[in-house]
């Protein structure tokens, strides 16, 4: 399968459809069924003590898999997150961006499944892993 | 087991330790191993189209189970979220608060487990369910 | 919504379509969007040490939610399990049956979601909780 | 970290402590924080229609991550599965073994986390993914 949207196309999509998070995210690379997404950490993402909040990490994984789907099918319709599971494994490094390595594991007619491994930038041990399932509207199939 | 913190005690804890979300949340009731938490929905929680975002629902469930743990053990130490799973089942009603019914299913020496059923206020069918696991630091046991 | 299959109808379905597990399971009650299922524990379900195995508990929850779906839609087609999450919370009591209290939380056109709380018979504290998602084939809608 | 048990050591452990499943499993390779495990499919694992059952796939992932932990810490004590999430993505190929590629993502003092990607032997697209969390007894730390 070929890519329908490259990193520039996905960045333009983010800026237009998700203006509230677009400035926090950088698409570092995109390939068939895979994508690398960086979250620029600032005050909005932090909990007391300086660690990145759980919802921020969940949001990074959610947007990452969503963009990996759009890269394959194009910006034609809205996939909807139907379920997720996340394991929070380590405390993110203070002051470091988070980087999500996303794999698309299934891109079916009605369901898509992907996972993400999230690292603090420059640290090998992952801080979280997440898997997400999306329901794909009929028009998108 | 007796409650160590009632709704007023938990509200004071939220205001002091989670000032960034305290004004969005109302503890409606608390009982041994159970809690009802309301999220006052505003612009910050919305996605394009007017639905509440996935990270906002995740955050509601996460804080809800966390508060149910604190109600039982007191505000002595920080439990850490180690894993969660969420099913997003229906689109939240536009303009309605979300209400989470939280059950604490296990409160062990090292792990606590709870779940939450989330409704749009005034609508019977749930919009999401979530289950969460917390690691409890030694001092808290 | 009305029940399409009662406990007798579900039991007959189990005996015909799942002969390999039908003799281990008893449908104790069925109601709209809810079902109570007992697993008669024997040697096949045990791990060294006498506890019920994880796969056996997973199977109980999986069949329980599946039967709750069939009770609502009738034995017309095969729903397929697409995802599950399980929390194993306590060691099951030795020599006791397991009882699953199943709730159907969503029964949509393409997806169904349910959860199960599993107890050792006669013990209040749950041993496990599980949530499961099923994809419903078009003919079933 | 060095391996405490190699494939032969893990195979001997399986035969002694899990005689009921040892003959169905082959450890194909083991490395620090990684393991490849094959399930020899036979009648016991099949559902009507010839597909491998969900509980069998869950069991494969569960034993796979468990063995990856033992490879690192040695056969000193029993880690207990505390939670899992599984996505069932495709129908396994009829008559083919299943192969699980296991990664250990965290091996902490009290919790270990791993995931598994499961393929039908000889087919690239995965049939399932699973993530599992284990509680590690104090003596094991």
Automatic annotation (TrEMBL), chains A, B, C, D:
Highest taxon, organism lineage: Bacteria
Keywords: Hydrolase, Membrane, Transmembrane, Transmembrane helix
Pfam families listed in its UniProt record: 4HBT
UniProt-listed InterPro entries: HotDog_dom_sf, PAAI_dom, Thioestr_dom
Coiled coil (residue ranges): none
Signal peptide as annotated in the record: none
Transmembrane segments: 63-81
Record-linked Gene3D superfamilies: Hotdog Thioesterase (3.10.129.10)
Domain Thioesterase: 49-122
GO function term, MF aspect, one: acyl-CoA hydrolase activity
Name of the protein: Thioesterase domain-containing protein
The organism's taxonomic lineage, starting at the top: Bacteria, Pseudomonadati, Pseudomonadota, Alphaproteobacteria, Rhodobacterales
């Amino acid at each position: 399968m070929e890519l329908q949207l490259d990193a520039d196309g996905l960045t333009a999509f983010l800026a237009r459809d998700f203006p509230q998070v677009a400035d926090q995210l950088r698409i570092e690379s995109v390939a068939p069924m895979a994508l690398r997404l960086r979250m620029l950490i600032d005050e909005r993402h932090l909990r007391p003590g300086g660690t990145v909040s759980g919802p921020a990490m969940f949001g990074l994984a959610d947007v990452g898999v969503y963009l990996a789907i759009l890269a394959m099918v194009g910006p034609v319709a809205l996939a909807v997150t139907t379920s997720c599971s996340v394991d929070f494994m380590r405390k993110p490094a203070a002051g470091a961006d988070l980087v999500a390595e996303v794999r698309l594991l299934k891109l079916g007619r009605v369901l898509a499944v992907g996972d993400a491994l999230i690292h603090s930038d420059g640290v090998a041990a992952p801080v979280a892993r997440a898997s997400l399932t999306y329901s794909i509207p009929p028009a998108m199939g």
